[in-house]
Specification:
The chain is α/β, with parallel strands linked by helices. It has two domains: 33-119, Leucine Dehydrogenase, chain A, domain 1 (Rossmann fold, 3-Layer(aba) Sandwich); 143-270, Rossmann fold (3-Layer(aba) Sandwich). The protein is 41% helix and 16% strand. The chain contains eleven helices and eleven strands. The strands form three sheets. A six-stranded parallel beta sheet has the order 1-11-8-7-5-6. Strands 3-2-4 form a three-stranded parallel beta sheet, with helices on both faces. Strand 9 (236-240) and strand 10 (243-247) form a beta hairpin. Helix 1 (12-32) packs parallel to helix 10 (269-288), helix 6 (144-157) crosses helix 7 and helix 6 (144-157) crosses helix 10 (269-288). The chain is globular, with a radius of gyration of 19 Å. It binds guanine. Guanine (GUN) binds next to strand 4 and helix 6. Guanine is lined by residues 99-102, 124, 144-145, 173. Residues 143-288 form the Tetrahydrofolate dehydrogenase/cyclohydrolase NAD(P)-binding domain.
Length: 307
């Protein structure tokens, strides 16, 4: 058997389908109680990638039995108008989750907008209260991409305690919350970034590598310990042989010769992000309807990402 045939391809589509099936089943139980979880998605401007992401989120919500409410605003929308919309969504008992698609136009202060979202409706887990709660190990709404990555690792690796995980990238959306989740899963965690002086050597010590830097094929076989498990969060569009294609932060073909398991791009992490958005929307609906729902169910679902 060749080395490559022993490599496990981590199938994010199949894993996401399992998560969505769990969510659908719990959502239909809520329907039985007269509750339909609802997600408000706000898109400002017409960035083509954001439009695709929003369309996929809305589609997935509907498939899962979650009502989606889209707010598309022009690129020149004033920050005050966006803040007023968020206030209305915060106050609306029919809305359980609020997602403001990033990036926002430059004239809008992203931090102010994210802080305006009610932390109980913050299905992105970007509000400082949720970020702080995550770092303290409290049960909070957790950013969807790292939560999805953790689930892929647990599914393919089993017990993570004691493993050395290297996270490449320190963004607020992926790198930092990923490190916090891996720490909670009892890994030894190293975060490396563009200013790390010995990036490759640090990475080569890792049992688990999560690459989230947005640099096409930065990580190749020389960066990886034999048998490492690699989660590639990067989605980079490149031109190759006159064609446009998507590649990750990891050189997939090179890594295949070394790793024991790896996520492909596309079809790895991407579908899990949306699945965890649905899971967070369900958790937010449970949090807001806690008087109607028995406690054991609530505690199970209110922290889907950390369990
Ligand atoms: N833009 C890129 N990723 C994300 C995400 O996870 N959430 C939001 N709201 N915007 C994004």
């Amino acid at each position: 058997m060749s080395t490559q045939s022993r490599v496990k391809l981590i199938d994010g589509k199949a894993a996401a389908a399992r998560v969505l099936a769990e969510v659908s089943s719990e959502v239909s139980q809520l329907h039985g109680l007269g509750i339909q979880p609802a997600l408000a998605v706000v898109l400002v401007g017409s960035d083509p990638a954001s439009q695709v992401y929003v369309r996929n989120k809305v589609m997935r919500a509907e498939e899962t039995g979650i009502r989606s409410i889209e707010h598309r605003l022009p690129a020149d929308t004033a920050e005050t108008a966006l803040l007023e919309l968020i206030e209305r969504l915060n106050a609306d008992p029919e809305v359980n989750g609020i997602l403001v698609q990033l990036p926002l136009p430059l004239h809008i202060d992203e931090h102010r907008v994210l802080q305006a979202i009610d932390p109980l409706k913050d299905v992105d887990g970007f509000h400082a209260e949720n970020v702080g709660g995550l770092s303290q190990g409290r049960e909070v709404l957790t950013p969807c991409t790292p939560a999805g990555c953790l689930r892929l690792l647990q599914d393919s690796y089993g017990e993570l305690a004691g493993k050395h995980a290297v996270v490449i990238g320190r963004s607020n959306i992926v790198g930092k919350p990923m490190a916090a989740l891996l720490l909670q899963a009892h890994c030894s965690v190293t975060v490396v970034h563009s200013r790390s002086s010995n990036l490759r050597e640090l990475c080569r010590q890792a049992d688990i590598v999560v690459a989230a830097v947005g640099r096409p094929r930065l990580v190749d076989a020389n960066w990886l310990k034999p048998g490492a498990v690699v989660i590639d969060v990067g989605i980079n569009r490149i031109e190759q042989d006159g064609r446009s294609r998507l590649v990750g932060d990891v050189d997939f073909d090179s890594a295949l010769g070394v790793v024991s398991a790896i996520t492909p791009v596309p079809g790895g992490v991407g579908p899990m992000t949306i699945a965890y958005l649905m899971k967070n929307t369900l958790a937010a609906a449970r949090l807001q309807h806690r008087t109607l729902i028995s406690q054991p169910q609530l505690s199970e679902a209110s922290c889907p990402s950390i369990s």
